[in-house]
Every structure is written in structure tokens, then in C-alpha cells.
Amino acid sequence: MTDSRYLKRTILKEEIQSRHLGEARTLRIYLPPGYNELLSYPVIYCQDGEEFFNFGRIATYANQLILDENIEPFIVVGVEVNTKIRTQEYAPFGNRFEAYTACFAEEIIPYIEGKYPVRRSADERVLAGDSLGGSVSMHIALRYPELFRRIISLSGAYYEQSQQLIAAESDLSALDVYMIVGLQETEFESDTGVYDFVQLNQDTRDLLLERGATVRYAEKDGKHLWGFWQKELPAALKYFLQEV
Question: C-alpha dihedral over 107, 111, 117, 119, to 10 degrees?
Fold first, then answer.
């Protein structure tokens, strides 16, 4: 049974007006137990913000890690997305990709840093995403290396265009990536085709390693679903936050 302390969570909703996207974007912000504006906190920025909170249970896991596993308190920012246009924003071939990545780095990050006591070092910001959310996190880090070096990639959708962008990089030695993929993801049907996510992630891991990145890679029994990713999320968070 879940400890009731884990369920006492502080989650705020914010809305920002994005000049790049030409619309409002909703953010969910988790504040840790004992939150104090005079302190400073590491921060996890999540794509698919609503799903990370509802299906990934990230706020409950955060409480558990902080209260029982001696992890330093941290803040979580979930950036919500309209699932109908998600591929257009997250995939490098999407017609909203340029606007979304610019919004994320140039509007959302300054907004959060102007309102909450999050740390501003690239080593204390983590990008997290599942499927296309994992690959767009990678692309944001590649485009804004001064902002991001740490990525949680849950079954990242590293399609051909994504791999080409990674292959074009010469030095990724500053990058630290936590990658996991499910062994039952070899024939996943997405809105753009059927893909072998195990092969995509293996190939992307190799591209990253060849360019000097640090990669923690694992393949486990699991499907391309939140039922798999949710169970893997605490270990992914601990990988980065125990080092902070």
C-alpha cells in the first residue's frame, strides 16, 4: 500500500504565453516537501507533462525519493502538449518543431527560473521524455548545450532524422544520457510507421558513445507504454539526482 506521505504533494499549474508557438502553454510544477523559496533546487523538465504526472506518477515518486531515500529535494516542471499535434512539435520533421524547441529553451526556462528557486547550471537541469518526448529532449540538449547536458530517455523515438542530427555532431562529451527501452518494442506502430525501437535505441546509443557521450543504457522486458516507463522512472531520477 502506498504510504500516505507520498500522496501529500504540492502541484501547481501555470500558463505562459508563447511568442514562438503563438499560443498559451500549460505547465505543471511539483514542489518538494519542505519547499523553501530561500533555498535552491535541482530541476527536472518533462515533455508530455500531463502524462508524466498522471501516468508516470512522478510527483509521488519524487516524494518517496526525497522522504525515504535521502535524495536532495528537487522541483519537477511538466510541459503539457496537445496530443493531436505532438508529432509536429516533437519530431524534427514536424512543422512546429522549430517553434517548440525555441519555446522550451527561450521562454519556458526563463519563466521558471524567474519564478522558482531552481538551479541554473546545466548539470542541475535534467530533461526527461518518453518516445518522441525522449528524442525531442535530445534535440533541445543538442541545440542548447549551455542549458542542458542530462537526459532521461524512456524508449526514445530516434527516427532516421533524429539519428542524422546526432551523427552530425562531432563532440558530445558533455552529454550524459539515461536510456531504457522495452524488449517488446520491436514492432511498434506509431502515427508515422512501424518501428523497431530496440534497434533505434541501440543505434542511437552507439552514435552517442562514438561522439564521447556518457550513456547508461538498458533493455528490459516491457512494451511501449507508461506501465513500463513508470516502473523505471525512480531509477532514472536517482541516476542523476544522487550525483547532484
Answer: 10
Burial of 216 (0-12, 13-18, 19+ CB in 10 A): middle
Task: Supply the mean pLDDT for the chain.
Answer: 95
Angle between helix 58-68 and helix 226-241 axes, rounded to 10 deg: 40
Q: Does domain 4-241 have CATH number 3.30.720.210?
A: no
Residues 182-197: pLDDT tens digits?
999 999 998 888 999 9
| 3-class secondary structure, 160 | helix
Question: Which residues sit opposite 44 in a β-bridge?
Answer: 76, 126
pTM over 0.85: yes
Q: What is the pLDDT of residue 243?
A: 58
**Neighbour-count burial for 56-89, b at 16+ CB within 10 Å, e otherwise:** bbbbbbbbbbbbeeebebbbbbbbbbeeeebbeb
> What residues does each domain of the chain span?
4-241
For the chain, what is the total number of helices (H) and then of strands (E)?
Answer: 10, 10
CA distances from residue 193 to 122, 188, 226, 238 in whole angstroms, order as listed: 34, 8, 20, 34
182 contacts: CB under 8 Å, gap ≥ 6: 155, 197, 198, 219, 220, 221, 222, 223, 224, 228
Please state at what angle helix 132-143 crosses helix 160-167, rounded to 10 degrees: 20
| Cβ atoms < 10 Å from Cβ of 27 | 19
Pairing of strands 188-190, 10-18: unpaired
Return d(Cα 113, Cα 235) in angstroms, integer.
Answer: 26
